[in-house]
Amino acid sequence: MAVKQYRPVTPGRRGMTTQDFSNITTKKPVRSLLKVKKTSNGRNNQGRITIRHRGGGVRRYQRNVNFKLAPDTQATVEHIEYDPNRSAHLARLKDESGKYHYVLAGKDMKPGKKITSAEEADIKAGNRLPLKNIPVGTTIHAIELQPGRGAQIVRAAGTSAQLTAKDELSAQIRLPSGELRAVNVESWATIGVIGNEQHQNIKFGKAGRRRHMGIRPTVRGVAQNAADHPHGGGEGRGKGGSNPRTPWGKPTLGYKTRSRKASNRLIIRSRHLGKRS
Predict the structure, then answer these.
(1) Which domains does the chain have, with CATH numbers?
(2) Cβ neighbours, 10 Å, residue 121
C-alpha cells in the first residue's frame, strides 16, 4: 500500500501525507457491529488523569472486532473497511449462517477470499488455528496469550510474529519487538502479516490533525516553571540541570519499572537484547 501525498498549497499540506484508501472497498460499516465510542480523556474510574495529553477529538464509532473467531467457522471476505480506532484495516466476514464478523485485515486480503477457523485449517494467510498445528517458521499475528481469551498481541498494522519452536506444552514466538516469548500451544493465531504496512510512514503535517485524534499538546519540561516540573525554572534558557526525570521526580530514560511480573518467566529473551542481535 502506498502513501498519498498532497500538493503543498498551504504550510500544513506541505509536509502532510495520508493513507492510500484504494484498497478500501466500502465506507458503510455494519450497523449491528457499531457502538458509540465513549472517551475517558485519560481519566480512570476515580476521575484522576492517568494518561496525560488526551481529550477532545472527533466523534467516532467503535467496531466490534471478533478477536476469537469460533472454531469450525468458514466465512467469505465481503469488504475491506477503515477503522478510525486502530492502525490496521478490518475485513468484513460473512459466515455460512449469514452472520457478520470483523477481523483484522491481512496483507493482500481482498473481497471474495475464503477464511477458515478450525483445528486442522490449511496453512494459508487469513486462516486461524492453534499454535500446536502451525509449522515452525510460519509468520502469524493476532495471537492469544491464554487459550480462549482472544487475540491480545501482534494486532498493529504491518506487524507479524514468527513461530520459532514448540514442544508438547509451549511454543516460542519471536515478537515484532525482538522479544522471544513462550505461549501455550493451545492458543490460537492467524496466519500471515497484518496489512496497511505503510501506516508508520504517515506524516501528520499539522497540529490540528492530532487534535482530531484526541491528542492534546505536550509541553517540554524545561519550558515549564520549577513548581510544575523538575526540569523547569532557572534564569534564561536551561537544560534541566539534573538527570532526566518525570514530572513526579521518577528517573526516566532507562529506569527499570518492571519487577516481579508473573509473565517474566515466559520471556525467554528480552526485547532489548533482541534489538541488538
Answers:
(1) 3-200 (2.40.50.140)
(2) 21
